[in-house]
Amino acid sequence: MSDPFSRLAARMDAITVRKMG
């Protein structure tokens, strides 16, 4: 799975989790 969207989504998810706590 080498998709730019998938990687961006994973990065956004990680940032959201870190911001949430």
From TrEMBL:
This is DNA breaking-rejoining protein. It comes from Escherichia coli.
